[in-house]
Design brief:
Blueprint: E1 7-13, E2 16-21, E3 26-28, E4 34-39, H1 71-78, E5 93-102, E6 105-112, H2 118-123, E7 127-135, H3 136-150, H4 158-164, H5 172-187, E8 197-198, E9 204-205, H6 207-210, E10 218-222, E11 230-239, E12 242-249, E13 252-259, E14 268-269, E15 280-282
């Protein structure tokens, strides 16, 4: 058996998606690259801990969990979280943004100014525009204003995002329409906090960054990894935490989505040949020590 690796998640760099591994190594991902790994035989998925600290009891966690944390570590990780509204005194400036994932799917959110557009890449936003920038609580109040006045959600399920990636409008101008319309409505509202500086609408398109041009509809998504299972395929696109892999399996060839958050907590090993032997949720409609694992 080869060296076991532990994935710490997918990150987005200026050059594209990168898989990170415990110990600090990275695997840059490029279109056409073969992504292949096996889950250790007899392995158990264990909690990844919280805020840089290991789980004290190395608790087992469900293979279907995207968080890969036990109940206690999940609670600790959420503590002092912007999303949980537990750090109202954060002095950093925050962006308010509109993010578009497909027709009828636009959300409002906030992200620290220092992070730039990283949060939008991590969420798989196909297009986005800034709305403004200001102190955390002003950004949060603006987010709540837009949710209430415009009916714009602050969350969109990943399953919904995946379902439309292969059927997006063909041009950047078409993909920008909903963001532009909502931006215009948003800046026309009263009640914006005075400390929030509004931003003009400048839609950024990520179709090229994600490799979505000409993407074939996915036939399914990996529902969980299992001990002894194998994942192998050619990377054709990536968005947010998702890898779109062209694979061959018992049911034939097709594109399958792998949520890389399912990889964390497992011991993973290199494999040579091999397709896909882990559970896949089919869509109703085809919508020595080496330097790295692959």
């Amino acid at each position: 058996m080869g060296q076991a690796w532990r994935c710490s998640g997918l990150r987005w760099s200026a050059d594209g998606p990168v898989l990170r591994w415990d110990g600090g190594r990275d695997s840059a991902l490029t279109w056409g690259k073969r992504v292949a790994f096996g889950v250790t035989e007899g392995g158990v998925r264990t909690c990844v801990g919280a805020r840089g600290n290991a789980c004290p009891i190395r608790a087992g966690v469900s293979g279907r969990s995207t968080g890969a944390r036990c109940e206690e570590c999940a609670r600790l990780d959420r503590a002092h979280s912007v999303a949980a509204d537990t750090i109202a005194d954060d002095p950093r400036p925050y962006h308010v943004y509109l993010a578009w994932f497909g027709p009828g799917m636009t959300k409002v959110g906030i992200t620290a100014l220092e992070r730039g557009s990283a949060r939008l890449l991590e969420q798989g936003a196909v297009a986005f525009s800034w709305l403004g920038v200001g102190p955390l609580m002003a950004a949060r109040r603006t987010e709540e204003l837009l949710r209430a006045a415009l009916g714009v959600p602050d969350r969109i399920p990943y399953a919904d995002k995946r379902a439309v990636r292969a059927a997006l409008p063909g041009s950047a101008a078409e993909r920008a329409v909903e963001v532009e319309e909502l931006h215009a409505r948003a800046v026309g509202l009263g009640g914006w906090p005075e400390s929030l500086e509004r931003a003009s609408c400048q839609v950024v398109d990520h179709v090229g960054v994600f490799g979505l041009t000409g993407l074939a509809p996915a036939v399914g998504a990996v529902s969980e990894l299992v001990a002894g299972g194998v994942v192998g395929g050619e990377l054709v696109a990536a968005a947010g935490p998702d890898l779109h892999l062209a694979v061959e399996g018992e049911r034939g060839a097709g594109v399958v989505v792998l949520d890389t958050r399912l990889m964390t907590g497992w011991g993973l090993v290199p494999v040579g040949e091999g397709g896909l032997t882990v559970p896949v949720r089919e869509f109703k409609e085809a919508a020595g020590v080496q330097d790295g694992l692959f």
